[in-house]
Design a protein that fits this description.
Blueprint: E1 10-15, H1 23-36, E2 41-45, H2 53-56, H3 66-70, E3 82-83, E4 89-92, H4 106-117, E5 123-127, H5 134-142, E6 145-150, H6 154-175, H7 179-189, H8 200-210, H9 212-224, E7 228-234, H10 237-254, E8 259-265, H11 268-275, H12 280-283, H13 288-300, H14 307-314, H15 322-325
Parallel strand pairs: 1-5, 1-6, 2-4, 2-5, 6-7, 7-8
Antiparallel strand pairs: 3-4
Bound molecules: adenosine-5'-triphosphate and magnesium ion.
Magnesium ion binds at residues 23-24, 47, 127.
C-alpha cells in the first residue's frame, strides 16, 4: 500500500488470491454503500481476464472499457467511465479484452495507476482478479487500502497467505535501494533458499546484519503496509473469529498490522442479488448481509456504525450472540 495518502481520489483495492471468494460481490456492494453515503465512487474492474463487475451492477456489456487503455487505443481513463443506474456510482468495465494479450505491461500499469487517482471521484475501488500475479499485486500495493477478502475455508486462507507473502516481498523489493539487499529479498522469496531465510523477520535480521539504513527502511515499509481483512461467507461464530486469527498471524509472521474490518454472512439472497444483477445493498438494504456490508463501508470512511444497523445486526440470523459482538464488525 502507498506509504502515504496521495492527492486525488482515495484508491481501494479488493484482492485475496483465491478465485470465487466474493471479491467482486464485496467490491460492488461496498461501492454501492459508499455511493449511498454520498461519496462519488468509480468502481473499476481490473480483472481483464474475467470481467464481470459490470454484470453485478446491472450494466449491459459496455463498449468502452479498460481494455481500450491497455491496448493504447485510449489514453484518457475519464472517457472509459460509464454510468450505472445508481446515483454517485460509475464504472470502468473490463469488457472486450484482448484474449491474446490481456494484461497491461508494467509501464502501462504505472500509467494506469496514476490515471486512476486522477479520476473525478472521491473514492476509486478496484476489483482485482484471482491469483498473485505481479499485475494484481501492484494494484493492491499502490492503493491506499488493500483489502483482502477471504472465505472461512482452509484453501482460501492458504491462498490469502500466499497472496500476502507475495505482496509483502514485492513491496520490500521495491522499497530497498541497494542491489545486494534487493537480491537478498529476491532470495527470501524462494522458500527453500540456502540462507535459511524462512520468514520476513528472518529476512529483517539478515538485512540488519548487513545494512542498518536498509533495515530501517524495511521496518518503516512494514509499518505502513497495512492490509485490511474481510471474511466473506460467514456461517458460524467460529468463522467470524477467523479474521482475528489471520490478523494475529500477520503480526507474528510478517510483523504487519492487518486490521480485521468486518465479516459478511453467507446468505442465499446474496447469490440471488447476483442473478438479479443488482447489488444487495441496493436491492434489499435491510438484509443482514447488506447491514454488514454497509457497516464495513462506514468503517472505511471512519464513520461510526449507524444505530439502526447495529441493532439489526445483533438480531441477525446465523452467527449471532456474544461471539459476533466480539467479532470484526465493531
Ligand atoms: N456472502 C455471500 N453469501 C452468499 N453467496 C455469496 C456471498 N458472496 C459471494 N457469493 C456468491 O459467490 C459468487 C462468486 O463471488 P464473486 O464473483 O464475487 O467472487 P470473486 O472472488 O470475485 O471470483 P473471481 O476470483 O473469479 O473474480 C457470487 O456470484 C455469489 O453468488
Ligand atoms: Mg471477481
Amino acid at each position: 500500500m502507498a506509504s502515504e495518502r496521495q492527492a486525488g481520489a482515495r484508491l481501494l483495492a479488493t484482492g485475496g488470491g483465491k478465485g470465487g471468494v466474493g471479491k467482486t460481490f464485496v467490491t460492488a456492494n461496498l461501492a454501492t454503500a459508499l455511493a449511498r453515503l454520498g461519496k462519488r465512487v468509480v468502481v473499476v474492474d481490473v480483472d481483464l481476464e474475467g470481467a464481470n463487475l459490470h454484470t453485478t451492477l446491472g450494466v449491459q456489456t459496455p463498449q468502452r472499457s479498460l481494455a481500450d487503455f491497455v491496448s493504447e487505443r485510449e489514453e484518457d481513463l475519464g472517457k472509459l467511465v460509464v454510468d450505472t443506474s445508481l446515483p454517485n456510482l460509475r464504472l470502468i468495465a473490463a469488457t472486450h479484452g484482448n484474449l491474446a494479450d490481456a494484461q497491461p505491461s508494467h509501464l502501462r500499469r504505472v500509467r494506469l495507476l496514476r490515471g486512476l487517482r486522477q479520476l473525478d471521484a472521491d473514492v476509486v475501488l478496484l476489483d482485482l482478479g484471482a491469483g498473485s500475479h505481479a499485475s494484481v499485486l501492484d494494484y493492491f500495493l499502490v492503493s491506499d487500502d488493500g483489502i483482502l477478502v477471504l472465505q472461512p475455508e482452509p484453501t482460501s486462507v492458504e491462498n490469502a497467505y500466499t497472496f500476502l507473502r507475495a505482496a509483502f516481498y514485492r513491496r520490500m523489493r521495491l522499497a530497498m535501494v541497494g542491489h545486494g539487499v534487493r537480491q537478498l529479498v529476491t532470495m527470501a522469496m524462494d522458500q527453500r533458499n540456502e540462507r535459511g531465510i524462512r520468514t520476513p523477520l528472518d529476512l529483517l535480521r539478515e538485512i540488519e546484519a548487513t545494512d542498518t539504513a536498509e533495515a530501517r527502511r524495511f521496518v518503516e515499509t512494514m509499518r505502513v503496509f497495512r492490509p485490511r481483512i474481510i471474511v466473506n461467507g460467514v456461517r458460524t461464530a467460529e468463522d467470524v473469529k477467523l479474521g482475528f486469527a489471520v490478523s494475529s498471524v500477520c503480526k507474528k509472521y510478517f510483523g504487519l498490522e492487518a486490521e480485521y474490518i468486518g465479516y459478511v454472512n453467507y446468505d442465499d439472497e446474496a447469490r440471488q442479488s447476483v442473478s438479479a444483477r443488482r447489488p444487495i445493498v441496493d436491492l434489499r438494504q435491510d438484509a443482514d448481509v447488506s447491514i454488514y456490508l454497509q457497516r464495513i463501508a462506514r468503517k472505511l470512511l471512519g464513520l461510526p456504525p449507524s444505530s439502526g444497523a447495529a441493532g439489526a445486526a445483533s438480531a441477525a440470523t446465523g452467527p449471532t450472540g456474544s461471539e459476533i459482538q466480539a467479532g470484526g464488525n465493531r
